[in-house]
Amino acid sequence: MPLSRAIPRWLIATAIVAGLVLSAAVALPYLVDVNRFRPLIAAKVREATGRTLTLGTVSFALLPTPGLSAGGPIRLSDSAAYPGRSALTAESLRVRLGLWGLLRGRAHVTSIRLSRPTLTLIRDARGRWNFDDLVQRAAAASGAGPRAGGAQESSFRVVVEQARVSGGRILIYDDAVIPGRRSEAVIAPIDATISGWGGDRPADLALSLGLGKSALAARARLGTSGAGPVLTLAARGKSVRVEDLALLLPWLGVARPAGLEVRGALDLDGSAEMPLERPESLRFKGTLALRGVSYRDAGMALPVKDLSGQVIVDGERAEWRDFSVRAGSSSLRGSLKVENFLKPRIGFTLTSPRLDLNEIVATLVPAAPAAAPARASSRPAAPPTGLLDQVSGAGRIDVKEVRFQTFDLANVRASVGLARSVFSLQEMSAAFYGGTLGGKATVDLSRAVPGYAASVRLEKVDVDPLLSAYDPGLKELVRGRLQGHLDLSAAGAEMDEILGTARGTGAVEIADGAVTSFSVLKQLAALLEMAGGKGVGRDSTPFESLRATLAVADRRARTGDLALHSPDLDLAGKGWVGLDATLDLDVAARFSEAATSGMVAKNARLGSLTEADRLAVYFSLQGDLASPRFRINTQAQGRQVRERAKEKLRDSLTDRLLKRLGQPDEGETP
Q: What does each C-alpha distance from 587 to 86, 554, 570, 618, 633 come to in angstroms?
């Protein structure tokens, strides 16, 4: 047969065969009811997973590639530990198979399309996930290996070339990540593309994850290690809402205090490894750039604001550069280093133009909850637990201006420690009203009522502005330079509470000063002026020193050795000076010998008031510190007169006795 005639016949035969195949491919899905295979598919799934699979209508197609489609509802039951629940639901599923893979004995899936799936992950308090049974089955299957004699198992090896998930979500219920409390999170929407699942290499994933109003883009690789499946991912997000990211804190290995309220945004760029069976073991490495974040937890009355800076994270360590935060008119800047995010340990170097400790205390200490009448107690209730209770640390701080209650300090420097909501300041130094203040102090914010303790040394402090800051009514009452030490403790948020609980001791001295005239000094000044005394005027009494040791309690500073020394007058007193600017003192005033001599020369009767050649006046001061009531202590003064009279009587009797015995008086020559 000529070749020219054979070719058309061959082409016709080929066309007929192709037409028959095409017709069969088109007709086969209509001729074969694949839905009758649903029980078989469900049985195979149950055999492989131990779970029940429920499918909607199933359809089959040969063109353009072999594939199956299943409509909703699609449900895969949860493990036996959660009967009646679904671990996975979806609206639809489409699977496309590679023909050549089928012919070679391998289920080669060219694509999977899963629409709007919901995956539910549950972990109980013992740390057991609802997918642990699937992991165990997979491990057992992979460990079975080839059959004896080298023959391979007859089941197909499934390789998924590409799987796409659209509009998915993950629901997490975890009772183990925070002992005693359930942690919940919803991650949605999720759009993902998975490549190479079931092949010889780890599967690659491209993810877009929704967190509240935020979105994260990530690329990941799913592999295995000795501990089980591990997800390695690189993530990036712009303007991620901090409040959205906070939902994942328990699984990021970061402490989540009770009552957490955060607002603001951050940019995220980094990578992490996460064991799927222990997601809280995730270790992130990368940067977080924070902008204008506000923070508050149950242990705080008000939020701190404008938290900013760049956080460089490497596993359980982080460095916070360009750190800044604000509370009211107070602000801090500097750098921090953090270790162990569950129980953070921090090191820091911070500076501030101004700190108002009154604002800070009001921010960090919430109002104490009202106690039920049946449980009324004198012991202050503990405030709710916040982040400060979980943080420990140490560092240095340098502040230009500090206000505490009504007092102002400048150029404050100190080493600071933090543990269980207690701040401790060591090696503290500050400029304080023209002088200096140094020592150590603690601020305890672990209780509903803040507590304070201080052991400080004062040097050359200008007394007048110090007293004016304490109480404006004491302005220009005392001048001079104060030095000494104070060891005090107190509790309270307001000045009145602090004064009411103040306890401690001290020793103070005012040098080269003056006491302005309250009534006693005017009267003593008048006595001295009558006698020609010098250095004491009607308006003020200059002195070389005024010193006392103090015992502070019950709103009073008690003393038994108050002493004022001046050229013409010494005062010695005992009693108390109230922290409310009142006093009750018993005072002995002793004039100098020169002043005494002049007054006795003018009025011989004053000689009966002398002690060791010095005129002594006993009186009491009571009432308001700026203008106390002056009263002569008649009892002490009378006792002095009687003692002086007895002394003169003894001298007179001695003189008479000596004369009778014929002994010469003193100064005579026998």
A: 89, 22, 10, 6, 9
How far is residue 620's CA from residue 519's CA, in Å, rounded to a whole number?
11
Percent with pLDDT over 70 in the chain: 77
DSSP H or E segment with residue 338: strand 330-339
Q: What span, in angstroms and rounded, lies between the C-alpha atoms of 423 and 391?
A: 11
Q: What pLDDT does 368 receive?
A: 55
Nearest alpha-carbon partner for 543 in 525, 529, 560: 525
**pLDDT tens per residue, range 64-91:** 667 788 887 899 999 989 999 999 999 9
Identify whether the C-beta of residue 568 lies closer than 8 Å to the C-beta of residue 534. Answer: yes
pLDDT at 519 (0 to 100): 57
Question: Following DSSP, what letter does each residue of 416-466 receive, concatenated?
Answer: EEEETTEEEEEEEEEEETTEEEEEEEEEE-SSSS-EEEEEEEEEEEEHHHH
In whole angstroms, what is the distance from residue 48 CA to residue 83 CA?
Answer: 18
Q: Which of 343, 363, 357, 351 is nearest to 398 (CA)?
A: 351
Closest-CA residue to 290 (of 357, 240, 225): 240
Span 527-537, pLDDT tens digits: 666 555 554 55
Sequence-ordered list of residues with C-beta below 8 angstroms from that of 358, at least 6 positions apart, any chain: 403, 404, 405
Phi first, then psi: what are they for 5, rounded to 5°? Answer: -85, -25
- Count the neighbouring beta carbons within 10 Å of the beta carbon of residue 457: 15
In this predicted model, which residue has the larger pLDDT, 147 or 463?
463
What is d(CA 364, CA 444) in angstroms, rounded to the nearest whole number?
11
Which amino acid is residue 540, in one-letter code? S
Helix 593-602 vs helix 519-530: crossing angle, to nearest 10:
70
Average confidence (pLDDT) over 224-230: 73
**CA pair distance 399, 431, nearest whole angstrom:** 11
Cis peptide before 73 (omega within 30 of 0): yes
φ, ψ of residue 411 to 5 degrees: the values are 50, 55
Phi/psi at 154 (5° precision): -80, -15
Q: What tokens appear for 591 in the block?
A: 């004039």
* Conformational region of residue 575, where left means phi above 0, alpha means psi within -120 to 50, and beta covers everything else: left
pLDDT given for residue 515 in this prediction: 84
Cα 632 from Cα 643, distance rounded (Å): 17
